[in-house]
Design brief:
With 225 residues, the chain is mainly alpha-helical. Helix content is 65%, strand content 9%. The protein is built from 9 helices and 4 strands; from the N terminus they run H-H-H-H-H-E-H-E-H-E-E-H-H. It has helices spanning 2-44, 49-59, 67-92, 98-116, 121-130, 148-161, 174-180, 198-205, 211-219; strands at 136-140, 166-170, 184-188, 191-196. The strands form 2 sheets. A two-stranded parallel sheet has the order 1-2. It is extended, with a radius of gyration of 25 Å.
């Protein structure tokens, strides 16, 4: 028993040291990057390298608050989403083309569809996501704000794309779910109430009716949250 406790303690200490080393390595890289940037600024423009250059880098978006913060968030959002997508792929063991590849292909696909093909905005977004060939696509209320014609068009696209990938769609529009979903997950307050193909849910909660009746049977007249 004593040897097992000692072994566990050593393993915990090793993991802690590894975590600390990882954090320190990241901080060291940031520091080295700032120092290299400062040297480059002094080479380019010694007179304004410190106050107009380096200090602006340190202050970031807060230099021109609040507009600077907004610009920083807008410019940083694509990089953040790219990092999250690649991290998710690495964590789940899915194939991916790397952060640079995801970002480059996504930007190219979106711009090409918008500027050359003149496609609707939601098609451009889907093209940006699909050019990286993801096996899992997560969409939140994808038909919100679309007219009936465009909603049907998007549902058709989703049905075609689902042939060789998993598509998770979060929505309150029951008609969209009923026409394209192979399986439906009912959620209440973040908890799964039920999960089954559409025909099975109808047979269980509203025989002979539709998915909207299933929704009302499960959640009542409330909002279903």
């Amino acid at each position: 028993m004593a040897k097992q406790k000692t072994s566990r303690s050593l393993d915990a200490q090793a993991k802690l040291r590894q975590s600390v080393n990882t954090v320190l390595a990241a901080l060291l890289c940031i520091l080295i990057g700032l120092l290299v940037g400062l040297v480059v600024l002094f080479i380019i423009n010694p007179g304004h390298a410190w106050d107009q250059g380096f200090m602006r880098i340190i202050q970031g978006g807060f230099y021109d608050f609040p507009y600077g913060v907004g610009r920083t968030l807008v410019n940083g959002a694509p990089l953040i989403m790219t990092g999250l997508s690649v991290a998710f792929a690495f964590k789940t063991g899915l194939f991916n083309i790397g952060a640079a590849g995801q970002y480059t292909l996504g930007a190219f696909g979106g711009l090409y569809c918008a500027l050359v093909l003149h496609l609707p905005w939601f098609v451009c977004l889907l093209a940006s996501a699909l050019l990286g060939d993801p096996k899992l696509l997560i969409l939140d209320e994808p038909t919100a704000g679309l007219d009936p014609k465009e909603r049907v068009r998007l549902r058709t696209l989703l049905a075609q794309m689902a042939a060789d990938r998993i598509i998770l769609v979060a929505t309150h529009v029951v008609s969209d779910v009923e026409t394209v979903a192979t399986e439906v997950i009912l959620l209440r307050a973040g908890q799964i109430v039920d999960a089954a193909p559409v025909p099975d849910l109808i047979a269980k909660y509203a025989p002979g009716q539709g998915l909207e009746d299933v929704y009302l049977a499960v959640f009542g007249e409330g909002d279903g949250k």
